[in-house]
Amino acid sequence: MVYSLVFITTLMATILYAFYLWLIPKPIPGIPYNRDSTHRPLGDALDMLREVSITSEFNLWCAKQVDKLNSPICQVFVNPFSKPWVLLADFAESQDIMLRRKEFDRSKFISGGMAPLGHFQSTLPTDDTWREARLWTQDLMTPTFLNNFAGPAAYSSVGELIRLWKTKARLAQGRSFSAATDLNNVSTDTMLQFTFGDHFPHASQREQIDRISSLDPATLSIGDENRAIEFPEAPVDTYITATHEGTDYVEKAVNSWISELTMWWVTKTPRYKRVMATKNRVIREQIEISLRNVRRGAVRTGVDHMVSREIALAEKHGRSPKYGGQKFRDEVFGLTLAGLHTTSAALGWIVKFLAENQDVQSRLRSELRSAYGKAVEERREPKFEELNHPRHPYLEAVVEEALRCHSTTVTREAVTDTELLGHHIPKGTVVFCVSNGPGFYKPALPVNDSKRSPTSKAAAKPKAWDESRDLSAFYPDRWLVQKSSNEKTGETRLEFDGNSGPQLIFGAGPRGCFGRRLAYIEMRILTALTVWNFQFLQTPKELSSHAATDGISHRATQCYVRLEEM
């Protein structure tokens, strides 16, 4: 009896210990990690959740792990019973993964959360379905389309924002007000124009301008100068609401510890079903309009070009056109979503940095007025064509520096067993390219070049920042270089160099951000026209936090402006 009890106890202890060993994280050999985490079934998850629940900044937590382990490559254990996540804090190797390494593809870290919204480019692996979607949209980032249609649409949307902010600035009487919704609306209207043109009769800002213009100033509570004035928001069209709710769903999934379960639950809700029904109804109507436009030779909008391209592809391959299918509708919806959240987040940081750096703002305004003297003489704003050609170096530098200073982590997934800095990386491992740590906001960590991949060794070494200057500071001049303008006289001029140092905000390579050219156009126009029309005054300390929320983008928690009309 005693022997039986001992045997059973030993057996149970062995089983429990084996179960414990199965539960605890399994590190990838050779890659640094937090030793304590490998003794806990949940690994680093609880530490991460504890910090992110306070800061809402997952990217910041990643950068801290790199600092703690003091290594350009390390691993963390966040998803229980899954492979570790690899954190890569080396720009050259991150760039190599995105540009040249076919062993890596877009990861499911964010795209998995977007999948219930439809199967558009951002959610797809690099396969034939993705290539077909790229063919549908290949005309939309060409200089012809951007300069003749998309750019003027962005200019028009920013013009509406200027009108709105002039009204709000007068009503606010020197007090601050939130800019977050306004910047979200200008991005929304730009994407709606880009996708549907005038065929879609609704806009976010038009209703808001009407609402604010009709306000009785006496109904506004001015209050303490350290508090923001709250303006009412006008209701918008159901499709516009659907696009906003769509990005909200993705944010919830990305910020969830159990993203797939979160999105599964969301898809069962009546609200989600209403969003999808609205999406499909409006897009069917817009495709029908575009089909008529193509048949009469009037191809202008994004959907017009997509329908035209699909008709040509169908003829080429001897099949029926697919513009009536769900995949095509999903791709159209992807266009209206693309950049909506990320661009508005970037615009928010731009206006914050301008207010906090009055010297930068004054210099930018002075240089713009000098460059566009005819506009000053005629007492008007620069036109789109003037802002677009030639581009202004300091304007480019201000935008690029704002992007650098709010960068977000880019992920890739190993689609086969491979190596990274001399370490074995199993298939299915997600690699987080950390762009808010060493090499970006602080001096780079040393890397043994012999450990780099063959493609990385063969490529030209990317430029690094001047590490004698504070990399965490907002300093647009780091993007400017002196170039000879006259060899005989030795005269030089400042030029913008987009490769001055590490930058990963849009990713890189075939899976880099599809809409980056449009995003740059929108950011340049908004930065130039707002500085031309307003003085961004420093907001009160209570409204000027740099706290942020990480999800699809790195979005400022507080985005307020205090404006003085010029």
Q: What this model shows, in words?
A:
This is Cytochrome p450 monooxygenase. It comes from Clohesyomyces aquaticus. GO terms for molecular function: heme binding; iron ion binding; monooxygenase activity; oxidoreductase activity, acting on paired donors, with incorporation or reduction of molecular oxygen. Belongs to the cytochrome P450 family. The protein has 566 residues and is of the alpha+beta class. Helices cover 50% and strands 10% of the residues. It has a five-stranded mixed beta sheet with strand order 1-2-8-5-3, with helices on both faces. It has a three-stranded antiparallel beta sheet with strand order 4-14-11. Strands 6-7 form a two-stranded antiparallel sheet. The chain is globular and about 100 Å long. It starts with a helix and ends with a strand. The model has no long low-confidence stretch (mean pLDDT 90).
Write the CATH fold name of the largest domain. Answer: Cytochrome p450
Strand content: 5-15%
General form: globular
What is the number of independent domains?
A: 2
Count of DSSP strands: 14
Low-confidence stretches: none
Q: What would you say the CATH architecture of the largest domain is?
A: Orthogonal Bundle
Structural class: alpha+beta
**pLDDT averaged over residues:** 90
